[in-house]
Structures are given as structure tokens and as C-alpha cells.
Amino acid sequence: MTNDPEIWPGKPYPLGATWDGNGVNFAIFSENAEKVALCLFESSEASNEAHRIPLKERTHWIWHCYIPGLKPGQLYGYRVYGRYAPKEGHRFNGHKVLLDPYAKVIGRRVDWRDEMFGYKLDGARKDLTMDRRDNAAYAPLAAVINPEFDWGCDKRLRIPWHETIIYELHVKGFSKLHPQIPEHLRGTYAGLASDPVLRHFKDLGVTAVELMPVHHHVNEKHLSDKGMTNYWGYNTLSYFAPDVGYAADRTPQGGIQEFKGMVKILHAAGIEVILDVVYNHTAEGNQLGPTLSFRGIDNLCYYRLSDKNKRYYEDFTGCGNSQNMRHPRVLQLIMDSLRYWILEMHVDGFRFDLASTLARELFAVDKLGGFFDIIHQDPVISQVKLIAEPWDVGEGGYQVGNFPPGWTEWNGKYRDCVRGFWKGDGGTASEFATRLCGSSDLYEDDGRHPYASINFVTCHDGFTLQDLVTFNDKHNEANLEENKDGDNNNLSWNCGVEGPTEKADILELRERQKRNMFVTLFLSQGVPMISGGDELSRSQQGNNNAYCQDNELSWHHWNLWNDHQRNFLEFAKKVIHMHKNQPVLKRRKFFRGKDSLGKGIKDAMWFEPSGIEMTGDAWQHYVRCFGGLFSGDHIDEQDEQGKQIHGDTLLVLMNAHHKGIDFTLPKIEAKCSWKLVLDTFESNPAERYYQQAELYKLRDRSLAVFSKEKGAPRA
User: Fold this and answer.
1) How many domains in the chain?
2) Which of 137, 282, 586, 643 is the most exposed place for a label (fewest CB within 10 A)?
């Protein structure tokens, strides 16, 4: 558009840029601005806007206009004018072009220059002095989109929580090195929807992929200066725009189409799509951060500022700022974003990063805060999968078990307990049994179910499973922070301290510990989540904070070079399919510890190695070996057709001791025997049958699973 455009008043809703087939409506919220100008750019290479259009219409603090004839692909930004008074919370700077908070796609990424900061970087008063240089040549720009897409018969899959198996992955890292995917599709949305990937998911048995952040994010300047990137993407700038950096088609419209196509293909394969979303903070950082969008549009509204001095930001995230969840327009932004991804992009759910931050109405975490009230009453958002990372870095931020009904949670207590038990920590057996049974201590009191617990042993943040059993200390030197970054918890695994000293024995012990923790995950009530690549024995060489490693250190390696890797992948498949075929492992109700059928067997029972049932006193001792029985006859649930659910009764023997123990298989009823399903001392044990009361040699640091069979043991 070279001629001056015709400007109509337009409408205040919807926010953002909306193409209706004849033109585009622009609407942006700013309560404290004195004036707002829409900036239209002719190309991403343009050093300045072709048109700067003052917005004369303002309705309820929303500035708006309509431009007839404007089409999808148009690049735009805003200049927002007002007071630059940081101590009062205002950081308006009309010299800066700003990104629309409702941008549906990014047409130009930020180019890090000093002009991207609203204050003088070399000034003695730091952020108190406004920078008057223009940033139009370097600012990120939004693009107008055409929302049309042929979804066909696609719809959300609505897989029940108790049938869900989550696979957490990074879109780029997952397929970047996959040899069977065409090179130009590796590391992209299209690559994630390719046939080799779909086969892997099907063979493995997962039902949902949880994508690490795909909202458009910014690589922090300090990382760019080091030649590094924010690989994980937890530095969001736009809550509506899929990051086109993960698209094979890097054009703005092409990136959106490719994302939608990925969702459609995954749905056709029976796989749900869950997004990891970061609404707790933005990429603008603290008072010394850049002015990219929210800060320059209305800093006082969008961010939690210190009551003592509004120059500074409340930081419950460790990332410099926290979104102001007390402001209705900020809540609206998040709700509009969630609905957009559900209705327009067809995703099936969300995992909320540092979700405790979203619940901070004042300072303390309030689980009945406005954010949750709005979610629960929303007829769209309340019907998808909602997962909380139930902590932040602020005081009182660890809220595992405290989120409202309707929410599931990453169960950090499950992770820590499972690791501790298999490491050999004392005093963990009683809690370990509780975690196996769905963590009723955390979720039952408020009416939730076992599937409120998202169980995991590893995730993107921390060691991979391979590294967890390999390294006693973190090795984050590649992050160029002198190995000072990363969590220090759960280190000192010391696999080989007690017992074997030969290298081959230590290697086998590590593989056994991997099997122990992986099978524990799928024997536990709740929703299992796999950290992508663990089934491939993926290693980050001891780096437990690879957030900035966009390279082969983080990417998945698909060529399995040794027997350990190949055997573990097959073991993982076997374990997952065992889980899928055993109703007793997917209960929707908690165990009661009672015999509701009058057969002398409780729905859950615990046994000492002697084969007798454990008493309350037994749990008080230093227990590192015990057994659990889970009755398939006591599942007080019905399937979708109203038929009573029955399944196998499973016996699980667990030995975290460094010595083998003879375990007497319990005698529970006449005319039955025990069939060995798996034993983690071997990657693929032969099927064997045992009599009740027979001794089973449970080897050191191993787990065995049996199913109850009718009749005497088979030959």
C-alpha cells in the first residue's frame, strides 16, 4: 500500500488485527496512553514504517480503526505515547515500535540493538532516562493473517485422563536428527507429523504430546551476545502466534497453516496435542529489560509492580517480571489466548508453567483466585486438559496438591520420592507406596481422582533418565555460567557406591535403575509422563539445565548404537503396553484398602519379604524391600457401556537394597498361581510360573511384576 490508506472508525472488538475479507480492523488496549499510532510496514526489511496512522477512536481504553482494502500479510506495529515516569510505573516511549499483544503471527523477529531498550543504556541514571532513538528498523512486527483452514472432520479427541500417556518433547530437538525424515522437514511442525514420527508414537503407545513452548519467544540479548539461544522457549513475547522458527515454511501464513496441519495429522493418528504455556511472565524482563510490547503499551496495567516503588517489578518467576493477574484486561488476554488455541488451532489442553504465579491475587498464592474462577466458568477452556506446574520461586509458591478440582498437576513429590526410593534413601517406603497408589494424601480431600497426579521421574528441566543414573554431579559448563546454573537437588546418585565395582557391572546396574524407575512410572496410579528421548537413552552429558543448548547436546539421537539402548527401547514399549492393557493400573478411584467382595483380598495390600501382610509398625522400619498387590477384581468402576471393569490382579515386588532378597510370594486364595510378567534384573525375562508361598529370588535393586493366574502353575 503506497497511497495514504482510507481510515474508518472500526470497532473495539475483537482485539488484535482482524481481516474480514474486505479490510482489517485494528484494536489495542492501553488505559494510560495519551495517544496511539498504528504503523504499517511495506516489508520486513523496511527501516521505517510506510504509514503512521493516529488512532482517533477510543472505546473503554481500547484504541481502534478499520482500514478497507488491507489484506493478509500486512506487517504492522504500534507507537504508544504517554509519560515516561518509571517511579510511577509508566514507561511510554513513542520512539519505539511495539508488538501487538494479540499478534497472530510474527512477520519480523527482534534484531538486538541498543535502540530496543526504552532507556539510555549508557546513562548514569540507568532506566530513569528515556532513550529517544527510533527502533523501527529492528523491532518485531506482527502480520495480518487469513484464518481459513480446511479442518475437515477434525475435532478434539477427548481421551479420558485415566487413559492418557503424555510424551513431553521439544518440536525442533525431537526430529532434528531423525534420519528417516526429509532433511527440510527435520525439527519442524511438519516433521513432528511425519510418518516415521507417527510410527514411533504408535509403537511406543503414547496418547498425547506435550509440546514445550511454541508461542513466539525471544532469545535474550545476553544469550545472543554469547552466540546462544533460548532453546527451551520459556521467554514468550506473543501468546497467540506459533513460532515460525519451528516451521518448514517460514512465511507468516505458512507457519500457521503448518501448525494446524500438524495438529490435524496427530489427531488422525489418535494423539492429542497439549501446549506448554508461559503466561506467568514475558520476555521483557525486569526494569533493565527491553521495550518490545507490553511495557511500552501500558506497563502499569500489564505487570505486577512493587508497591514501594513502581520502578521495580514483583518477580515470582525468576525471570524479571510477573504478569498482573489482578487486572481484568490481563486476565482477558490470557483467556482470549487460550480460547484461540482451542477454537482456532484445535489443541487439546495446556500445561501452565509456574502456575502458582497465576494464582497470586495479592502476594500469597490463592487457589480460588480470579484466574481459576474464570477458567472454571468458561464453557470452552474448562473442557480441555489443564495441567499445572504447581510452584513458582516466590514465598509459599510450592503448591503441589493445592490446585482446585478440574486441574491436574505435575507431581514433584512423586518425582522426588521415586528417585529417593530407588537411590536407596531410608524412610521413603511408606511415601513410595502412597505415590504408587495415586497420591491420595495430595488429591483426595478436595474430591479429585488419582489422575489429578501427572507422574514423572524426569522432564525437560533437569537430568535425562540416562544422565540421572550416570552422573553424580551436574556438568553445565557449556552454558558459560561456570556450572553455577541448574538445580542442585537430587544429585549424588552414586549407583556404584555399594555393591559392584567392575565397569561392566556398574553399566548394567545403571540400566537396571533406568528400568526400575521407568516401570515404576507405569505401575503407578495417575497419568504417566515420559520425558521425550528417555526411551532412546538420550544423554545431555550431565547438563541438567540445557535451556540454551540448541545443538546435538539437546537434540534426540535416533541411531541406537549399542544393545543397552536397543534393549531399553523395547523394554519401554513392553512396559507401556502392559500399562495400557491392565485396568487395575488406570483406576479412576483411589484404593480403599478394603475387601469389598468378601474374598479375603483387599483392593490394595502390602507384604513383607516373608510373604505376610505389612502392619503399621513395619512401615516405621528402614524398609527397602516390600511388595504391593493390586486387585483387578476390586475395580469399582464401569466402562462407557456400563459394564463392570475387571482386570488382572498384579503383584509388584520392589527391592531397593544393594543385596538380593528371597521373597515369599504371598498366598492369597486357593487354586491360583503367579505368572512372572517382568523382572527389571533382565531387560526381557522369560515367562515363568510360580506357586503361592514359593520363594522368589528378588535380585539387588530390582523390581518384579506378577499376575494372578487361575489354577496350579503351568509347566
Assistant:
1) 2
2) 643
- Candidates 626, 671, 670; CA nearest to 651 is 626
Residue 416 parent element (H or E): helix 412-423
User: What are the residue numbers of the active site?
Assistant: 353, 389
SS3 377: helix
Domain assignment present for 651: yes
Provide CB contacts within 8 A for 280, sequence distance 6+. Answer: 316, 317, 322, 323, 352, 353, 354, 355, 357, 358, 392
Whether the upstream peptide bond of residue 14 has omega within 30° of 0, thus cis, is yes
Distance CA 289, CA 113 (A): 12
Model confidence, pTM: 0.97
What is the DSSP code string of 14-31? Answer: SSEEEE-SSEEEEEEE-S
Residue 44: inside a domain = yes
The residue from 105, 120, 143 where one domain ends is: 143
How many Å apart are CA 411 and CA 614, to the nearest integer?
A: 26
257 inside domain: no
* DSSP string covering 204-250: HT--EEEES--EEE---HHHHHTT---SS---EEEEEEE-GGG-SS-
Answer whether 553's CB lies under 8 Å from 139's CB. no
In a domain? residue 621: yes
Q: Which of 143, 165, 182 is the last residue of a domain?
A: 143
CA distance 334 to 283: 16
Q: How far is CA 293 from CA 91, 103, 259, in A?
A: 11, 11, 24
Instruction: Give, as one character, the DSSP assignment of residue 491.
Output: -
Task: State the Cα–Cα distance between residues 437 and 434, nearest whole angstrom.
Answer: 5
**What gap in Å lies between CA 679 and CA 669, rounded to an integer?**
23
> Using DSSP, how many helices (H) and how many strands (E) does the chain show?
14, 29
Q: How many C-beta neighbours within 10 Å does residue 625 have?
A: 19
CATH number, position 642: 2.60.40.1180
How many CB atoms are located within 10 Å of the residue 456 CB? 22
Q: Which of 689, 693, 688 is nearest to 668 (CA)?
A: 693
Q: How far is CA 608 from CA 521, 563, 654, in A?
A: 22, 35, 10
Cell for 368? 480460588
Residue 115, phi then psi, degrees to nearest 5: -65, -15
SS3 assignment for 550-584: CCCCCCCCCCCCCHHHHHHHHHHHHHHHHHHCCHH
Packing angle of the helix pair 412-423, 503-523 (nearest 10 deg)? 140
Could you list the mean pLDDT of each consecutive 10-residue stretch along the chain, which spans 715 residues?
87 98 98 98 98 98 98 98 98 98 98 97 91 98 98 97 98 98 98 98 98 97 95 98 97 97 98 98 98 98 97 95 94 97 98 90 68 92 96 86 93 97 92 97 95 98 96 95 83 48 87 97 98 98 97 97 95 98 97 86 96 89 92 89 91 97 95 96 89 97 97 76
